Inverse folding.
């Protein structure tokens, strides 16, 4: 029976109490406790749990409190009533969700972090970027061309195929100058860092996540941070750098 009643959230002892009551019929709590083999004080807690799930009923007779199981055929009605309650609660939540979200402090939300290791895993992360509507990137085209050539144009593809907008700041190199000549446009703006300014990892900032990619000699890894607050902060930093460049 545990496999059935565990779905009600009942413990083994609570299930045992219910099935014992099925065979005993209506009994005082002290009698049920004796048959189950637990103290009467503990049985009161079990009875309350079973009442919460509407699996037993309680009544007084001659000043003594009795409990009994609901008819077995009525258990299905209990589940159906719970199902209706869940549906009504979901509808109410949908109605109230905008108000709750307006009250929610963004500082109270713990960012979700995802790690990707190896070229295949990082490639999947790159592919997901094509669905983003806003993209800001610090990147080294020479490194991407060497390590992930198939994904050098991923942001350009997002702009062309999905109507995204993008700003990219690239490390100065021949690949960067070629990239800028090919793709610089109103919706896909590209600037190049002054000669000598460089970095060894890339950072792509979206509306609600930050993707940081690290390139080793023979290994690639990425970290994604899903946080609207942190992404907003990084966009502010990006814009400061962007506005300082010609």
């Amino acid at each position: 029976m545990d496999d059935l009643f565990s779905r009600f959230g009942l413990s083994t002892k609570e299930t045992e109490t219910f099935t014992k009551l099925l065979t005993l019929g209506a009994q005082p709590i002290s009698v049920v406790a004796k048959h189950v083999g637990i103290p009467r004080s503990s049985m009161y807690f079990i009875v309350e749990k079973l009442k919460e799930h509407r699996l037993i009923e309680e009544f007084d007779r001659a000043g003594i409190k009795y409990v009994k199981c609901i008819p077995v055929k009525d258990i299905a009605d209990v589940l159906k009533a719970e199902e209706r309650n869940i549906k009504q609660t979901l509808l109410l939540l949908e109605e109230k969700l905008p108000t709750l979200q307006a009250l929610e402090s963004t500082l109270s939300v713990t960012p979700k972090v995802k790690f990707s290791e190896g070229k295949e895993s990082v490639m999947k992360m790159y592919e997901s970027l094509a669905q983003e509507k806003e993209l800001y990137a610090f990147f080294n085209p020479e490194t991407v061309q060497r390590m992930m050539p198939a994904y050098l144009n991923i942001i350009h593809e997002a702009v062309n195929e999905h109507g995204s907008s993008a700003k990219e700041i690239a490390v100065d190199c021949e690949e960067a100058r070629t990239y800028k000549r090919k793709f610089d446009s109103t919706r896909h703006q590209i600037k190049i860092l002054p000669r000598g300014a460089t970095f060894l990892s890339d950072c792509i900032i979206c509306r609600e996540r930050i993707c940081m990619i690290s390139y080793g000699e023979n290994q690639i890894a990425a970290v994604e941070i899903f946080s609207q607050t942190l992404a907003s902060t990084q966009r502010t930093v990006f814009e400061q750098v962007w506005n300082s460049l010609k």
About this structure: The chain is about 50% helix and 25% strand. The chain has a mean pLDDT of 87.
